[in-house]
Amino acid sequence: MNHIYHKFLEEAEKKSFDQEHRKRLNHNIGRYDEQVEKGKSQFQNLELAKRRAANLKHKIINNLDKYLVEFENNFSKHGGKVIWAPSEKDAQREIMHIIKRAKAKVIVKQKTMVSEELELNELFEKNKREVFETDLGEYIVQLAGEKPYHILTPAMHKSKEDVAKLFHEKFDLPEDSQPAQITQFVREKLRSEFIRADVGITGGNFLVADVGAVCLTENEGNGLLCMAFPKIHIVVVGIEKLIPSVMDLDLFLPLLAQHGTGQRITVYNNLVFGPRGEFESDGPEEMYVVLLDNRRTELLKFKEQRRALACIRCGACLNGCPIYKSVGGYTYKATYSGPIGSVISPHYLGMKEYNHLSFASSLCGKCTEVCPVKIPLHELLLHNRHEAVSKKYISFKWRTIISMWKIAMLHRWMIDKPSSGLKNKMIKRFGKQMWGPRRTMPKMAPKSFKDLWKESHS
Fold first, then answer.
1. Which stretches of 242-302 are assigned E, i.e. beta strand?
2. Which pairing describes strands 242-243 and 199-202: parallel, antiparallel, or unpaired?
3. At what angle do helices 160-171 and 136-143 cross, to 10 degrees?
4. Is 119 left (phi over 0), alpha (psi -120 to 50) or beta?
5. Tens digit of pLDDT for each residue in 221-234?
6. How far does CA 115 lie from the centroid of its chain?
7. What's the DSSP call for residue 430?
8. Which structural domains are found in the chain, ordered by start?
9. What is the C-alpha to C-alpha distance for residues 383 and 291, in angstroms, rounded to an integer?
10. pTM of this structure
């Protein structure tokens, strides 16, 4: 077993028995669940909407090369520049090249998971640049020196008292500050940073191929300010975020909003076609879209797991997952946590070191049930497990035990032969070691159902 796996087991156990942590997560996710249920009422046929969205994403994933070229051609017509980044290092190098060429010192960022994947904050700080997260949740975890806890809600693990204490320590706000007061303080503080900023960095919820536009959807308006004030706007986005047509947004935007926060539609929805035009008064002078691969095309090689690239990052699978609600977001030690992270992270970070994430699942199917684009997540976890076993990334001991179990299950006489006493001894010796000290092991009855049936019908 590798060090990452050991660390996962240690932290998972610690968090699972942290009652305060569970209370916070259950409370915050519970509030989302209520709103998401209400949000379903806007759909006359939600299942049909999900099926249409799934079909469109399936079409994109299986024709990714075609749609990427179409997007690049259309985006370039409006004066924007596309940068192809095969790896994390390539993306970091290209982004820093733009920043150094512009002699930029201050950078503002909209919430984007791809920037976390690239560790851009650490990159900028290493190169002596000021960087400010402008999403409230992201700003909170940045001040705390932490990473996002949840794909959609970065500070989900913190209570309002935790946040008040943090702002008291950092800015000397009153220790009993209320959320409204803290929000007002952050709004005033960040407004000056937007004005000072040389570069704005955002993600992209969707890349619209037929018009060559980046669709940004958000609730706070900080994304708009990140691209409107600075002279340079950089979009960092995974190559899988494409949709075929601008006409498809009337399907995807409500699905994303409803499954993410329960809203009918997110507050701010913008299509960005490129830098400021000749007769436009607002917008950046330069705009770049960094298309990140970073092993996504490796995932495309897998017939089944490639379906995970259809994800629209709504966070619904995390909210529904009993494992995530128990161990939390940091235990995964990966940018993408929860069920979707357990599928894609082993492929992005290395199956040998991260295959344990695919085993951290109850396989209850809740993640598949709530997915707005019908990704069969619990089935994909099984495909990952199969790959890990096939490549012998699972310990020899485990493989031997499962092989013996398989042989026994395929031969009825092996199940019937041992006495109940011997079976109970084997369960006690091996079962507790395999399944943990807190589980009550089953006790085999002296006679099997088969024996009882024979006796009663003889």
1. 242-243, 268-272, 286-292
2. unpaired
3. 60
4. left
5. 999 999 989 999 99
6. 13
7. I
8. 1-42+304-394 (1.10.1060), 67-294 (3.40.50.10420), 414-456 (no CATH)
9. 27
10. 0.92
